[in-house]
Amino acid sequence: METSIQKVTSKGINLKDALPNASDYTECTKHLLPLMDTMDLLSGRWKFVILLALWFGGRMRFKEIQRNIPKITGKVLSKELKDLEEHGILTRTVYDTSPVSVVYELTTYGKTLDKVILALREWGVNHRKKVLSK
User: Fold this and answer.
1) 116 and 51 in one domain?
2) DSSP-based three-state secondary structure for 28
3) Is the pTM of this model over 0.70?
4) Which Gene3D superfamilies does the UniProt entry name for this protein (predicted)?
């Protein structure tokens, strides 16, 4: 029996074949919930930029992240970091120093997003070529 993974071809995925139990839109939507959850988590102007800053910078303090992303406000950065922490993508460690220092770092789980980001980048490169060639 062929699995949905084996149905991936060089031309892409036929969603009807990859989701054989999705006989209608409602059923298909249930199968795509994990994708919608992922897109919801990563959506927004700053999530990818924050993730990349932490990938390349490693453990970073709040101000270091903010310096690496010049146009982000402290309020927005704080909100996005909290959201990523709540989803287990990064850790926030508070050190009892004077003044208190807080360090952010990608979790092992957060680092598993590398393949997702690279796949989205590849699609984006191809899409830009297509759009710009018109």
Assistant:
1) yes
2) helix
3) yes
4) Winged helix-like DNA-binding domain superfamily/Winged helix DNA-binding domain
